[in-house]
Amino acid sequence: MRKNAKESLTLDELLQHANCWLYERRILIPADRTLRDLGRSVWAETERDTLALIEATVPETQLRRADAALSSQHDAADMTVLDWLKTPPARHSPTTITETLEKIRFLKEIGVHTWTLDTVPIDKQRAWAQRIQARRPVKTRELKGSARTLELVFFLRVTLLELTDSLLYQIGRRVSDLVRHAYNKTTTKQARSSVEYRQQLGRCCINPGSVGLTFTRNGWNAGSVNF
Questions:
Q1: Rounded distance, CA 208 to CA 215, Å?
Q2: The organism sits in which domain of life (predicted)?
Q3: 3-class SS at 207?
Q4: Residue 212 region, left (φ>0) first, then alpha (ψ -120 to 50), else beta?
Q5: Cα dist. 201→113, 196, 198 in Å?
Q6: pLDDT score of 213
Q7: Measured between alpha carbons, how far is 64 from 62 in angstroms, rounded to an integer?
């Protein structure tokens, strides 16, 4: 159960794994309350281990700064910094890229990029982060103790990872747009040049003299060039 607790996203999921494990081995499944109490104990132990990892990895000063920053008001966005970070990117444009870069810079200034928490499965990190994502800011401010620390740290870390992926995607889209625009512009210019060339060639055929062509007994002549 301890092994499954490291990867399970909820207590109910952990209990489901435990029931399946016991059933597959034909072991008598205990009463639901007994199994749930055991699951809660293991779940709490996993959270304590994760908190110990955070305390060993994230400096207390960075954690306090991050906590205070999320509750502050964002100057340009007219919302809290937490809501600003929650806001998904708009359609791809130079403005969207600029805002994504601003969010990444903000998180790096706090020091989120230095938090080495890779031993925690990414799906479990996302599960903790999603709790803040789905909760109203006022409810988040009411959180205390270990739950607040776990959700705060993994929300910031997962947000940085997702913003970095989003930035790479946005830049790729922008580069594709620029290449397509340049290609279309070049194609249009080539087509225009081709039309002008055909028009000039047509004028030559209709009125050779207008372009300096004269016919002699030796053939068409353009200055010193014979055809």
A1: 9
A2: Bacteria
A3: coil
A4: left
A5: 65, 9, 5
A6: 52
A7: 6
pLDDT digits (tens, 9 = 90+) for 44-73: 899 999 999 999 999 999 999 998 998 888
Q: Are 212 and 222 in contact (CB under 8 A)?
A: yes
> Hey, what are 142's tokens?
């009411």
Shortest CA distance to 162 belongs to which of 88, 83, 71, 91? Answer: 88
Task: Report the C-alpha dihedral over residues 120, 112, 139, 38, rounded to 10 degrees.
Answer: 20
Q: How far apart are CA 123 and CA 158, in angstroms?
A: 10
The contacts of residue 30 (CB under 8 Å, 6+ apart) are 38
Extended beta strands in 136-226, E state: 213-216, 219-222, 225-226
Instruction: For residues 40 and 57, give the distance between their C-alpha atoms in angstroms, rounded to a whole number.
Output: 26
CA distance 7 to 125: 10
Quote the CA–CA distance of 131 and 134 in Å, as a whole number.
5
- Backbone φ and ψ for 221, nearest 5 degrees, come out as -135, 130
Average pLDDT value for the chain: 81
**Where exactly are the structural domains of the chain?**
1-57, 59-227
Q: Say if residue 134's pLDDT is above 60.
A: yes
- The yes-or-no verdict on residue 209 having pLDDT over 60 is no
The pTM assigned to this predicted structure is 0.71
CB 163 within 8 A of CB 100: yes
List beta partners, residue 177.
Answer: none
Report pLDDT digits (tens) over 92-131. 667 888 899 999 999 999 999 999 999 999 999 999 999 8
